[in-house]
Structure prediction request, 349 residues.
Amino acid sequence: MTSSDPRWQPEKPLTVAGLSESELLERIFPRLNRGTAGGTAVLLGPGDDAAIVGAPDGRTVLSIDTLVADQDFRLRWNNGYRTSGYDVGWKAAAQNLSDINAMGARPTSLVVSLTMPPETLVSWVEDFADGLTAGLRGLGAPDCAVAGGDLGRGRELAVSVAILGTLDGKEPVLRSGARPGDTLALAGTVGRAAAGLALLESATDFRALGSGARALMDTQCRPAPPLAAGPLAREAGATAMMDISDGLVRDGNRLAAASRAVLNLDTAALKELCVPLLPASDLLGTDPMAWVLGGGEDHGLLATFPAGLQLPPGFTAIGSVTASAATGSTGVTIAGRPADTVGWDHFAD
Prediction:
């Protein structure tokens, strides 16, 4: 039959409402990362009521993050781009891997909870599983195995990932160890995901974007945290470290408060961080410094190191740590002046 034949009917895309949970799981399981041979900490994976995960270090590093449609991503953006399941799977992997990385730890396993409206396409769920696996492998965590999870039905599409990691017998790097005189350094990027978000929300068709602007958009959809940098910073003697998920100033304030210190940002270093953002700022007429200081979701690392110490590969100095004022106040300054950029707040924004 052909499309002109009245008996021909186009096949409707399969939705999750058309499959049982077992049938959907049969499509997902083969796509999930099981860890490399001999490298996984998962002793018992998907199939039972709970997974069993080894903890050879005797300690477990644990974090959890959630992505909700229309809060953390849109299925269709104003510029015409459609968020794929692959995008969401990759981003879920990236943001959770980054939290483990910020402790100087190594990710070992994770569990995933996926809540879906009944009209969600099965192909979208399969793409999500592919993106999650590609994120784990592509970002440099092939040993981090998917140990299990949960599927549920709901009004909103939402993904929650709980991730486990190991310190491999080492001590964690906390937010609270920065000391006056330390060098403040950055690994990865800042501002690029925020510039990408502005492009996604703009009226400029994404297909018309140049390569520089498109790369910024891709950073928002599929961030690339520097996973090798966390353990390297720990080994090099980092005194404090954290993931930059909500903006350089907002997260810097958190590190400063935990360390009872002041982080002073260098203006020349900040200007250098603006340069990759020019394709978006020129197009949208936005000051790129606002993205550098307030934009989140690149998932770079902010760390402090003893003065004079050679920074490990991947880190660039962007300022220094100074003693808090006589009043005991802490925070972030730029060339000695208070930084007033707010950054991202999950409840206020």
